[in-house]
Amino acid sequence: MLRLLVRWVLSALIIMLTAHLVPGITIVGFSYAMLAVVVMAVVNAFIKPILMFISLPANILTLGLFTFVINALLFMLVAYITPGFSVQNFWAGLAGSLVVAILLVPVVLFTEKKKQ
Question: What is the pTM for the complete model shown?
Fold first, then answer.
């Protein structure tokens, strides 16, 4: 339970940092970032697998690069759903999704349960 809470808080901080680094992304405050993390988790759990399956031919043709487009669109969807969080255009969404994905790697590795 503690790992989930730590991952949630660190992910919210990463979204706040992304909003600071990428022009075109704004977030009002930390509580909105926490809400955005929850919405992002739900979107990634339920909508992303369906979109990945539907876009499989495009992903094969582009050697997986179409996944970046899907991630950007889902990032923009999260901003649309979450109050206090906005993404101005596709390019800001693409940059934001890349920054969040790169910065989340150490968080996931740090909070991952060690197998013995």
Answer: 0.91
